[in-house]
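Human: Here is a favour to ask of a fellow structure person. Comparing notes only helps if you start from a blank page. I am asking you to supply a protein in sequence and C-alpha cell form. Write it directly below this note and I will take it from there.

Assistant:
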Amino acid sequence: MATAMVTQWGMSPSIGYMSYADDPQQLHKPFSEDTAMRIDSEVKRIVDEAYKQCKDLLIEKKKEVGIVAEELLRKEVLSRDDMVRLLGKREWGGSQEFEKWFGGRGDTQGVEGSTPGAQLPGGETGHGSPPLGGAAPVAFRRL
C-alpha cells in the first residue's frame, strides 16, 4: 500500500504528484535508478512511520488492549455495547455520528435484521465476520 501511495497515487511530497505505475508490457522501469532509490526510501519512511505510530498507540493503550483481549477470549465476539461497557463512552459522537459518516450504526443490529451468528444474504455472518472466501464484513460492505 505504501508503494502504491508513492508510485501510483502521488501521495508523497518528496517524490511529487507523479504516477510511476508499473506497466507489465514494458521490459524496464520508466524511471531512473536514482528515482527508484528515492521511491524505495520514501516507501520505507512511510512504513517505518506507520509502524512507529502503531507501536506507540499499542503501548499507550496497553491496558485497554488487554481488557478487550480478555473479553474476546471469554465471548469471542464483541458488540459496540460491549466496547462501551469495557472502555467507556468515546469522546466523539454516538451511533448517530457513526451513521452520518459510514451509513450504519457500527454494529450489525438493523442490518437486514441480522443477529450475531445469523447468516445474511451473500453469506455474511451477523457478527460482521466474513465467511471463508474473504467477502467484506457487513459493516463495511454498505459504504
Summary: Confidence is low (pLDDT under 50) at residues 110-121, 124-143. Residues 21 and 59 are 36 Å apart (CA to CA).
